[in-house]
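ingest -> validate -> predict -> emit
validate: passed (alphabet ok, no gaps, 247 aa)
predict: started
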Amino acid sequence: MQRVSLQPAYVLHHRPFRDTSRIVDLFTREHGRIAVVARGVRAPKSRLRGVLQPFSALIVSFSTKGELGTLSGAEAAGGRGALGGDALLSAFYVNELLLRLMQKGDPHPEVYEEYEHTLNRLATELSPHEALRIFEKRLLEALGYGLNLAHDIVTGEALVAEKHYEFRLEEGPTVTQSMATGALVFPGGSLIALAEERLGDERSMRDAKMLLRSSLDLYLGARPLRTREVMLSLRSPNKGSWNREGK
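emit:
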């Protein structure tokens, strides 16, 4: 059995377990994603009942033996602005990406730091879209699935903003004159903007969303993201910014 004390962490998801407990999926800085039983946390007088909430920075202690560990302590570790509306839905989307793409027990301190940075951006910026695209890009890179946004995979030449490229998933871009339906074809300027994380205009943001979603879907498999389904359900008249953009 391994005992871990005072580890920075966030709650990604929790679900009921037996009468008064919960199974909590934690994202920790040094131990990656882990699942622990929080015993008695659903009891009315439990001190941890209001502590183990998504998007709140925590310091946790736990022991692990096999797939499921046991939480021995948790306390709040500072706060940030409250998340609501688009920002809150976006944060749940980020949590679901981590649950689906990260293996249990596989530490990625750089992803932990990007996660914290993304939550801070979501809490303070008016639009969540750029923060989400950059997080998706950096998550793919950290997991070994980074996009080739530097050169043509056939010629080896650097991308040119004025040319158009067909992007072949798991390979990269190659220059094309074709705009075939269903192909991932983008102006070089959009690929360069994503490489440099400059997504200030509508075209580069739209192209980044299409390319990153197609890339993520390779590794997510056939089961759709629940948060995407919620987002799509809100894309109807009079539903605000989700109707215009989605995620």
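The two ends are 41 Å apart (CA to CA).
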